[in-house]
Amino acid sequence: MATTDTTPRENSLEWLINKTESVYTLPLFYDRLTEVINHPRSSIEDITDVISKDQGLTARLLKLANSPLFGYFSKIDSIGKAATIIGTQQLQAMALAVSVTEVFTGIPENLVNMKTFWQHSIACGITARALAIYRREANVERVFAAGILHDVGRLVMCTAIPDIFRELLVAGREEKALLVSLEEERLGFSHADVGGRLLEKWCIPASIAEPVACHHSPNGARKFPLEAAFIHLADIICKSLGLGFNGEWVVPPLDPSAWERLDIPADALAEIIKHVEPQLSETTAILRGSAP
Amino acid sequence: MGKILTDNLASGMILGADVRDRSGRLLLGTGTILSDRHLYILRTWGVIEVEIAGADDCCKGLNSAITIEPALWAAIEKEIAPLFRHADITHPAIKELMRLRILREAAHGNH
Amino acid sequence: MNPVSRKMEHAAFLEERVSYLEQANRNYVALLDVLASTSEFQADLNREKSIEGIYRATLAQLGRLFPFREMGLLVNSADNSFTLAECEPPSCRDNLLEGVDKAIMDGTFAWALNRSQAITVPAPEGDCILLHVIATQNRISGMFIGRLCGAEKIIDAPALNALSNILHSSAYAMESGILYSMLREHLQTLEEKVQERTAELQSARDMAEAGALELKISNEQLCREISERKRAEDELIKAQKLESLGVFAGGIAHDFNNILTSILANLSFARMQLSPSHTISKRLEECEKATVRASELTRQLLTFARGGEPVKKLIDPAPLVREAASFVLRGSTVRSIVDLPADLWCLEADAGQLSQSLHNLLINAAQAMPDGGEVTVRGGNKSLDADNTHRLPAGDYIRITVEDHGCGIPRENLARIFDPYFTTKSQGSGLGLASVYSIVKRHGGTVGISSTLGVGSSFDIHLPASPGKRPEGVAVKVTAELHGGGRILIMDDEDFIRAIATEILQYKGYEVASCADGREAVDLYRSARQGNVPYAAVILDLTIPGGMGGKEAAVLILELDPEAVLIVSSGYSNDPVIANYQNFGFSGSISKPFDADTLARELERLIAGKR
Known about the structure:
The structure holds 3 protein chains of 3 kinds.
Chain A: H1 13-21, H2 28-38, H3 44-52, H4 55-65, H5 79-86, H6 88-103, H7 114-134, H8 140-149, H9 152-160, H10 162-175, H11 179-187, H12 191-201, H13 206-213, H14 225-241, H15 256-262, H16 269-274, H17 276-288
Chain B: E1 2-5, E2 19-20, E3 26-28, H1 36-44, E4 49-52, H2 70-80, H3 92-107
Antiparallel strand pairs in B: 1-4, 2-3
Helix pairs in contact in B: 2-3
Chain C: H1 3-36, H2 38-47, H3 51-65, E1 70-76, E2 82-88, H4 93-105, H5 108-114, E3 119-122, E4 128-135, E5 140-148, H6 157-210, H7 213-272, H8 279-302, E6 313-315, H9 317-329, E7 334-339, E8 347-349, H10 351-368, E9 373-384, E10 395-403, H11 411-414, H12 432-442, E11 446-452, E12 456-464, E13 486-491, H13 495-507, E14 510-515, H14 518-530, E15 537-541, H15 550-560, E16 566-570, H16 576-579, E17 588-591, H17 596-610
Parallel strand pairs in C: 7-9, 13-14, 13-15, 15-16, 16-17
Antiparallel strand pairs in C: 1-2, 1-5, 3-4, 4-5, 6-8, 9-10, 10-12, 11-12
Helix pairs in contact in C: 2-3, 2-6, 3-6, 6-7, 7-8, 7-13, 9-10, 10-12, 14-15
């Protein structure tokens, strides 16, 4: 059947993205922030100006910067100070982290409970960040943001193909099967692919988009395999410990080569994880505001 | 023995526990009699609070090790087994995560 | 808005865009230049062995990246404080330290320690201070601090990432640099110890010879206390070296000796069957000699083997010394002068080991004088009191000095001269002097050395003596052709040894049976006795891997027949059972490798002695 129709096939990856593209868009400030941070002649003041225009964002960023997650000695009372102390690139990643939960509203609650969904995502972000800190990686906020965004593909599925996704959720629960495998069998792609593609559309840097796209197949990451491994392991840790709930009923399999790439001794996990839970509720409150 | 904020420390106090930085590196050992120089080192490394011998312990017992009855352990282990059915439970990381889950379940007193 | 002003606005926007792109382009070209020099920088780090060099190379590279007005490196000291190790320019030291102090007090410093990225904080006069930790995953080595002019706004992300990369490389270089300097320090200490020890030996000797000992006693006492510990450590190291060599030697000894036994016995047996005038006979004799030399070498190695106590007998050292001097130097351009007092004391010693030591010292002396010369061997009696410089217990000793006039030994080699496998000669095995050391030590003596380059060396042995005792005279052996008769049982786990021993003894007129382990030997002995065809003698191998050895078999056979003639054979010539075979019920011993003649003679002697 020859056709000139360029509309993607129903239920394909592109179709899903197109269908939700107009629903889920990043706040305007994010593009402006990217522009000003990348501009070679920008100053800290220029960045402060962009962020300060959004009072909600400013308040959440400062709350996050002063939360136990950061553990900074004294008070960070201005965006200017946050930009110098935390770094501008880091601030950009944090801005993404604190604004993304607001983007996804109106998801049918009978499919996924948004409270536990974000709990899992934020726990994954905090855990991935803790793993990166353990490894002494630069720009751990990027890993934090990627962790928070890693399952947004599932939210896209909830909106675009609610009936199919419900079937998959039920099958996963009743057969104790891997949801990510069921997605691939039924659709030919997984929520990771959807999330990665959405972030690409949003012009989020590859250092965040690729780890999201590859968080179930960390070896598929060509540019940022280490970051992908952080998200991969953090997701497994949060599933193992039952932190939040993302629709998946079982612990996904661990890729042994990703574990080896991280080079973290197994007995260090307890110490790394120990600090995650106490930070979880406060960080969730900051990121989600008063949302249910 | 109890925790005291670095800001409230004075020289002459005696450390009641090893002081480590965030990555576990030993900075000052138990029994060190704090001098001004030590206080400066604590500040350098961003240590917020330390254990001081003889200070009141407000949170005693909170960190004490939990001992779990073997029967309870086995019961929890059985209960969480389906969760790990797709994971390689012989892998050291997964083994450790299962152990941590069991400890967590037992600590939360769900059993 | 009219079209003209809209156009102008558009033009202004484009102009701004172009200038932005130009600026960005300049920045990236500059950054690329710095990154291109990264490989050069890496090479600098790898070449640089001193920590200070690494600091300087790092600062130079960072200076290419950002126009720092002042910069410095703080290093993490043992007490976990930070000290400023390097700064540029040098005059900025106080300024930087002030900045560091402020950062520590307001917590920025601690913050920077835990973030692997650049942290910038405002500084007076509109400047800003940049902090970046220098750390690998395992270890925080230090902190970089740089001061930038107010005009320089550093939010250029790629340049900041390049800064992180440079400091990460430096952190690795510093970590390995620190390890390297620790190693160097350790080597230095060792070197100093060696020199100290050499100097002590030299001064102790000088003092003794000058007879000024008494005057120096208090001083020496002090020296001794200081050096006692070091000496003990040195001795321990030496002992450990010898022990590991001993384990190795002991491990191969059994098999190696069995092979030599087979070779030697076959050769001698073959020669026995030829007329001495036969042309082949001469060749066989040469082979035999070579085999004997090989077994000598094995014995030298075995001297180190564990549990190898010397087989001590009361001996007169004088003939041993004379024999050694004439034997070793025969045919060489070196002449020996032997100067022994007529009343040289006798001593309890292993004659074989003692002459081996003398051989080794004489060979060493001869090799030191390739163009010929004189070796003086002096002997003397010496009674030492408790305060002697040789660290020997008070008592009677004989002293043997072997002195050459050769090239001498460089100072740095003196302390290692007795180490196994230490040699300065192309043809040396490095075992000669080590075995001297080992043998003398086992006899409760000491060996010392003094040497002057270009003048010669002198080795000095002290051995505990037994004044007033003399060995009993030994009857000269009758070397008549001996022929035996009777039944002999041979027990050995190696079938090629059983085969050749059987053939030799059959040739000598014996009736021979053989078996491979002790249990079998006992059974055979029992049934032979019951059948009234008893064995005249039994040769028992001491060690049977995985089976009953000669020691246990002897006990069981003697239970059957207290009069049994038992001969123990072993490759471990210094095994206590071989040394004191009578205590274990044996009538004689044969150490492997043996030749046909020795085997036949020992057997004949014992059977004849019984008859």
